[in-house]
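ARCHIVE RECORD
Type: protein–small molecule complex
Small molecule: iron/sulfur cluster
Source of inputs: curated submission
Record status: active
Notes field left blank by submitter.
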Amino acid sequence: MDADVRQMTWTELAALCTNLEKACTKQLKEEEARAFASLASFYASKRKAQGDASLDDLLALIEADLSTGYRSANEAANYADDRGAKRALLWGEKATKLLKSLLARYAKQKEALTADTGVFVCEICGFVYVGQQPPEVCPICKVPSFKIHEVKKEAI
Amino acid sequence: MHAARNLRLCTKDCVCLFICPTGATNTETGQIDFDKCLDGCRLCVDACPSGAIYLVSSTYPAPQPKHPSVLETLYSLVRSKAAQEDVAHSVKEGSDDAALRQICTVVETSSRIIAEDLWRESGYIIAQSEATRALLKAMISEHGTMEGFPRTEVEELLSRLS
Ligand code: SF4
Ligand code: SF4
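STRUCTURE (tokenized, with ligand):
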């Protein structure tokens, strides 16, 4: 079941490394966590920006996940009765729907969408919230709000 | 096995400081001194009135086995989430509109978290596993000679994990 690193993109590898970095942090293994973080930044540094990328491409990928990706994965997880996988799929699919709605709202409202309000992301499940204050408990994964972080506009 | 403190729950003023036979609980960082902590002692864990101390194991069971079709479909989603992060990253790099960049950062961050969770359910839930060791070895053999690859760190990591 070993993943074949030759077929993986740089960002897939980076995400695998940041996942293991977090797992080490939870076990308070700082040196191991740092090594996974270094690997993740190496992989992140390898990727190249694609000049012609657009939000429409993004929306198309998200829609494909919602129409087929999550469905096939849920079928497999149900068949195998894999409750861990079902959990990750439930959270991920909900967060993906919120990303779709964020992009749709941004397409209509542009900068007005976040002009007078904050945007927050849950560090555990990827839940996205546009508003002044994030909810006390994440509606998707139920963690307390200290795990939900604001994404600020950066000055360029 | 060693004790560790949840710093959000600890009140910093009480019984673990009195009961620890080695002074491991009394440190300037607020965290327990793992090197001084006695394997299996747990006196402070049972004594803490705030439930703020827990034990961190040094060995873990192998991750739960995964069905091949689960692995395959989860991996397709990882692939898609990583592609979404890449597109969001590219759009952000190509724009100086602060609001658009903010939306892209949200998509990058959220997609990454979802991808990490999918990896977690694909047999990479902990670093101390056969799958992770095989992964690190494959990374060294495929990418180990590329510029910027943190080779020494990865080799040290592998020896710590075995
Ligand atoms: S006994 Fe518990 S609450 Fe008191 S100082 Fe120790 S860890 Fe903190
Ligand atoms: S488990 Fe025992 S040795 Fe370790 S910190 Fe707690 S009281 Fe001290």
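CURATOR ANNOTATION: The helical segments of chain B are 15-19, 43-47, 68-93, 98-120, 130-143, 151-161.
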